[in-house]
Amino acid sequence: MNRFIALSFFAFTFLFANLSFSQNNISGDIKDNSGKPIAGAVVSIESLKRNTTSNNNGQFKLENISNGNYNIAISHLGFKSINKAVTIKNKNVTLSLILEDDLLNLKTVVVTGTFDPRIGLESSTSISTLKSKDIKKSYPQGTASLLQNIPGTFTDASAGEVYTKVYTRGVSASAEDDMGWYYVSLQEDGLPVSLVQHSYYSPDLFHRTDLTTKRAEAIRGGSSAITALNAPGGIYNFISHGSRQDFGGEVQLSAGAQGDDNAILKADTNIGGPLGNNWYFNAGGHYRVDDGARDTDFTFSKGGQFKFNVIKEHDNGYIKFYGKFLNDKTNRYTGVAATNWDNPTPAFGQNFKNSSLLMPGFNATIPDGRNLDNTINFDPSQGVHAKDLALGFDFLQDLGNNWSIKNNIKFSAKDANWQTSISNAFVSLSNPLAYFISGAQFPIGQVVFKDAQSNNELARVNNSGILAGESFEYISGSLPNDAIMGTSAWYKDNEADEWMNQLTLRKKLENHDITTGLSLGFSDTSHYTQGSFAFVTYEPNPRLLDVTLENPNQPVLALSDENGVSNYGGLFFVNSRAKISQVATFLNDRWKVANKLHLDLGLRYETINHKGSKDRYAPFSQDGGLDGDATTAYDNSVSTPTGERDHFNYNYNYLSYSAGVNYKINDNTALFSRFSKGNKAPELNYYFNNFDNVAINKKGEIQKILQAELGVKLDSKNASFTGTAFWSQLKDIGIANFEFDGDNNSIFYTPIQFNSSRTIGFEWESVFSPVDYLNFRFNGVIQDPKAKDWKIYDAAGSVDTTDDTITDYSGNTLPFNPKLMFNLSTEFEKDKFSAFLKWQYMGKRQGNVANGFELDAYSIFNLGTGYKINKNLSANILVTNLFNSEGLANFFGANSFGANANGATPEFVATNPDASFVVFPVLRRRALLSINYSF
Asked: TonB-dependent receptor-like beta-barrel domain: from which residue to which, for each copy (predicted)?
């Protein structure tokens, strides 16, 4: 009995000792090749669902690990992930780890354009990543400007932060200037920034980049057909910072000069850390005041945003709450006049460096056409006021037995209010439009132009002969260039309440990784546009004109109000509302055919419903106009609803698919290929723009996109390379032109023509690092973009259809797609000093499908230097467009009110060699000094 008790006591003691001492710790430090500690590296043991991150000193610790054999994974963006086998047996383990640079992030996990996160080398898509330090090397101008660094991505940011264009691989035809993100999805943390697009309402209105962004991932075509809502052309996903083990962050203060010594001031911050019990937080944002790269008499941009997230990590996943509040005012530049089609030269005293031709700021009270009892306070210095309040919830849960579920849901309330100029065309004083556009019934005789601010008379003209084709005559004084500017005091008010959700259910089998799920998007939006004419001098730094008709022995007739605003609400009127629902279900299988061969097969069925209405309208009819005063002509033509509405309720259903293959030759080399069929349903501009006081009696066409790609990915210690040959075809492209009818002073869109395009090309991304502190990067695209079948409707300058024609341009070069575009840079970083020099080359582009005008190639050089003052403090200088290139980014056609790029046909150019036209120059040199404090 005593022996039994003794043995039992010994066994219990032994077992207790084992249980007590088999719980061990794994700790260590993580450094880069140069011996610098790496903060924020993720250290995980997948079999235990345990992970942590390294602190600012590169140190980490995993506690209470039982005896056994484990595989520890260590990863960090910009470094190659490694796996370390560790055996624990009643002893703590200390590791010293070195991570090698991942030059093209091919050994880094990517999450965009895929349902199952994987390293870039094993992906069957063409994907690129911009790291936080890459983002810091870009001037804070806007999202499109930043994405110029993505290979194969065409961007036009010549107008500023908004009113930009972004597309790839020739999938571009409907990406017009007023909705340039038509085919691609701009995302934050995996969900779209906005579900809705229409004229002058694109997602770039509601997106700003600052220190809260950890990285940006970009997919060009390919799998975006099955992984994004109605965006087959690509995905640009901006990912925020995640969990941080120690409290810390970064503050950045920036100041600079641009253009003609215009200032920019910006403050950025991002902080994060633990809250206890595996809770973590991040918070930050920015505020900036920017006078702009071109000359205006008001602050071009001001405002900022605040973002946050709170994360709870647990053994089987995480939950995350996040949000954003954006309150920002910016503007966009209009074009500059040029002459000489073969070598464009600035005209009418303007220049390609500083001229903006935006109206000066003023305060006017204009009738609100929606309800004439209300008024609109119009001030063009307000520009585009964008507000976005977004709140979201994201979670990942391991359900056991290799099942997992992930759901990301976001609600946002958006408001975009435009108070700015539209168009800046030359209108001769001999053109009857210069007077009749005021809305006056017969503004013929002595017209007096006064400076609206000083009230000084600038010119008095006699226009009595203009209806007979004769020139005007000056009675006294003169106006610059004997003209006024064809421009509008343009007011837009857009609101949208949006709810979106992405649910995925994943099951991992021995040879299959299957994902299915549901994507939902709902938007309730309203859209109002009102345009009034404004009398403005046609010159750099335009002045507003108070205009009257002062014929002898007759009452003075006011053609404008005291601010120079005329034809209240008579140029544009669109009042509409819509509810959009987007529902998609998807199924994807990553099939391990062999140890090195994976097939990626995916289907997506999407249904989109557009339901809404658009008001019919007519000019307000009352003797003497709105105020009943016959001597004020500027309020005689206010457009108001008639009470009738044209309704639409259309469904768009389509099936998209994508099949990819990845063959991993070895740990550093892989081949991939993919074929995709995507679809693009119409955006709301189809209803808002194309049906003016007529029934919306048919739905738009779904564009079809076929894409194929074949690529290689190579990674080594000193060099990395990805190259992708691609073919893309876009069909059923609806094209309508913006036109002006001079006979009745109305603006209209021409009947839609359905066309197709084809592009073949090769895009590449490479980096060579001969030594640890020196990198050479080279990326770009060479392509052949063709307008395969293409017709343009010519309205001959009037609503009357009897003289209309249709011209066939099939086989021409697709406009605004360069045949060659690349970025070449060198980067140096050693000890406390860093520097880079980048050459951005934009090849020649056709300015329209008629190929009547070609935009020349141009180069832009950017330079940056940095110095680390101490452990926490650093200073950086960034100069963009170092040599003040005057390259032309865009073309808007002839310099006349209501003209468009398609009107500049080869025949027009040949018969009008001295005509002026409108171009958009790239923004001139900008220099910025940033002081960064990291802790």
From this structure: 330-882
CA nearest 583: which of 552, 560, 605?
605
> 857-870 b/e with 16+ CB inside 10 Å = b?
bbebbbbbebebee
pLDDT digits (tens, 9 = 90+) for 224-265: 999 999 999 999 999 999 998 889 999 999 999 998 899 999
- Say if 144 falls within a structural domain: no
Looking at residue 111, its pLDDT comes to: 86
Residue 584 belongs to domain spanning: 248-425+487-934
Can you tell me the distance from the alpha carbon of 104 to that of 120, in angstroms, rounded to the nearest whole number?
A: 9
Write down the H helix ranges in 42-105.
none
Q: pLDDT-derived band of residue 739, with 50, 70 and 90 as boundaries?
A: low
pLDDT band at 480 (very low <50, low <70, confident <90, very high): very high
Q: What is the CATH number of the domain that holds 402?
A: 2.40.170.20
**Beta bridge partners of residue 530, listed in sequence order:** 491, 573
- Residue 895 counted as domain residue: yes
User: Do residues 321 and 312 touch, judged by C-beta distance below 8 A?
Assistant: no
- Of 81, 98, 115, the one marking the end of a domain is 98
Residue 142 neighbours by CB under 8 Å, 6+ apart: 157, 160, 161, 162, 164, 204, 208, 209
CATH number of the domain residue 33 falls in: 2.60.40.10
Residue ending a domain, among 74, 98, 122, is 98
Q: Indicate the number of domains in the chain.
A: 2
Stated pTM of the model: 0.91
Could you tell me which residues are beta bridge partners of residue 646?
614
Q: Give dist(CA 407, CA 519) in Å, integer.
A: 10
